Amino acid sequence: MQRHVISVLVENEPGALSRVVGLFSGRGFNIDSLNVAPTLDEKVSHMTITTYGDNIIMEQIMKQLHKIVPVIKVMEFTDQAAVEREMMFVKVQAEGPARGEILRTVEIFRCKVVDVSHNEMTIEATGDYEKLEAILSLLRRFGIKEVARTGSVAMGRSRKGD
Q: Which distant-in-sequence residues (6+ apart) come within 8 Å of 37 by Cβ?
């Protein structure tokens, strides 16, 4: 199954989020991550939804999103140039020589250590989905104790030459 990143502009009104989420759940389609925040216009919110599925189901979802009353604009970034970022905290077991290896990993990925105790470190990482998955992959051997992720925020890239 393919990963899809969808950007939805909706009217900032009660029930808008539940209508969009209801569309996914009503079709048995899982939302992997969901991020919602107001835009420059306080009457409009921007949703970034990531999900997995085939193109046929995704096409149905896109058509249905356009029909929901509070939806203003829908864009899918799977085949389109976009900037996508996510933030994550990872708490890892960090004792003895492992501390130095963890710090080297943090430096390579340009992360930050935001909390330290005698036996744990909490790392803040920002990047696209693939970068965060790579960081988790490398940190697993130390013993990941907890992960908190924001979910993706995405925006279409500017056209060059404008």
A: 45, 46, 153
At residue 143, the 3 state secondary structure works out as: coil
List C-alpha distances in Å: 146 to 3, 130, 140. 24, 19, 11
- Do β-strands 82-93 and 144-149 pair in parallel, antiparallel, or remain unpaired? antiparallel
Give the E-state strand segments of 39-136 in sequence order.
Answer: 44-53, 71-76, 82-93, 112-116, 120-127
Nearest to 21 by CA among 71, 86, 55: 71
Q: Can you give the length of the chain in residues?
A: 162
Centre a 10 Å sphere on the Cβ of residue 121 and count the other Cβ atoms it contains. Answer: 23
**What distance in Å separates the CA atoms of residue 35 and residue 33, rounded to the nearest whole number?**
7
What are the pLDDT digits (tens) for 151-162?
A: 899 988 887 765
**pTM more than 0.90:** no
Q: Give the Å distances, CA to CA, from 101 to 97, 111, 132, 142.
A: 7, 14, 18, 9
For 109-146, how does the pLDDT look when each residue is reduced to its tens digit (9 = 90+)?
Answer: 999 999 999 999 999 999 999 999 999 999 999 999 99
